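Progress narrative, work stream C.
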Amino acid sequence: MKPGAAPSHPVRLMDQVRERIRYLHYSLSTEKTYLYWICFFIRWQAMGGQMRHPREMGAAEVEAFLTMLATERKVSASTHNQALSALLFLYREVLCITLPWLENVNRPAQKRRIPSVLTKEEVAALLSFVEGPTALLAQLLYGTGMRLMEGLRLRVKDIDFDRYVIIVREAKGNKDRVVMLPRSLAPALRAQVLAARQQWDVDRKAQRGGVETPHALEMKYPQVGRSWGWFWVFPSPTQSIDPRSGVERRHHLFEERLQRAIKRAVSQAGICKPVSVHTLRHSFATHLLQSGTDIRTVQELLGHSDVSTTMIYTHVLKVAAGGTKSPLDALNGLTT
C-alpha cells in the first residue's frame, strides 16, 4: 500500500506506519514508540464513540489528545514531545497530509537539569564492583564518553589498535565520530576481540546467520553480515530472532545487562547519587573539562552538534571546583 492510501481498518494503518518507518530506516525503538502513540491516539478517540480513521480527525482531536496527556496523565515534557512527533510522522509521512495547524502546536519546554556526575573516586569505586564482560564495557563507556548503545553496537572493524582510536558509527543524529581508545584498556579489549573471534568461528562452522548490518549494505552485499569485520565486539552469548526480518542471528549484549550491573555496583559502592549508565558519559565530559581539555574538543568527542549542549558540564564543573566562595565564609573569618 502506498503512503497516503486509506487503509480499511486500524490494523492496516499500523502495518502502513511500520512499513514507512522501516523504509526510512528508523530504529526499532522508534518504531515501537511511534506505533504505541499512534495506536493510543486512535483508541483514545474511540472511547467516546465509534473508532475513526485519523484522516477523519484534525486539529481538535490531536490537541485534545495532547492536552489530555499533559493535564490528566501529567506526562513529562519529553514524553509529550514524543507523542507529538509520532502524530507528526503519521500525518506527514504515512498519510501525506499537510496540516499547517500541527506545525504550530506548542511543544512543552524541556527543563535543563544539571546532570548527576560522579567524582573520580566514585567512578573508581563503582567500576571495581562491575564484573565480567560488562566490566570492560563500563570502563570503555567512561573512558570514551560513548553512549550505551554505541558501545554495545561496536564492530570489530571500528577499533584501531595502532592509532588507539575507535570510530563510532551511525550515532545519534546518524553521525559518525572518532573517540580515543584508552591505552590502559587496550590489552583487555584485545582479549575481548579474541573471545568474539572464537564465537564468530563457532557461528561460521555451524552455518548460522550473520549479524545485523545496515539495510542498504546488506542488499548490495548479502554475505556482509557473516564477515569478521562486522561482528560485534560484545556479542550476546545466545542467538535470537530478529523482530523485523524474522531471521535467527547473534545480537550484541542485551543493554539491560550493564544497566543491572551498574545498579548493583552503585549499591555496593555506597553511592547515594542517582546513577545510570549515562552517568558515566556525564562524568567523562566533566572530568575532561576539569583536567583542562577545551570545550570544543569535548563537544566533538561527545558528538554534540551544538556547543551549548556541552556547556551544561561547565556548570557542574564550577560547583565541583568550588571556585566561587560563599560570603558566609568571609563573615566567619574563613580565608582558605
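Work stream C, second folded protein:
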Amino acid sequence: MIDIVRALKTAAATGEVRFGLAETKKSMKNGEAKLVVLASNCPEKDSLEGQTSSKIVVFQGTNVELGAACGKPFSISALAIVSPGESNILSA
C-alpha cells in the first residue's frame, strides 16, 4: 500500500497534474488522465466514476484535505494525474 498523501505531493511537485473538476473532466475527455483522484465529498463523484476508462481513486478525505495533501492552499474536489513525475501514484 502506498502513502497516497506523499505520492500526491510528489506528483504535484514533479509531475503534471490538472487540478479542479473542469480541468479533470477535460483531461478525461482528451484521454490524458492516467489516474483521477476524487475527494470523498466531490459533488460529481458518482457521475464521473462511470464516465472514463481512467483509473479512479476516491481520496478518503474532504476537498480541503485533498488540497492540503497536494500542498495547495485551496480545496480540490478532483484532480487528474497526466504525468506522475517522480511519484509512485499510478500504483495506487
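The chain has one domain: 4-91. No further action is required on this item.
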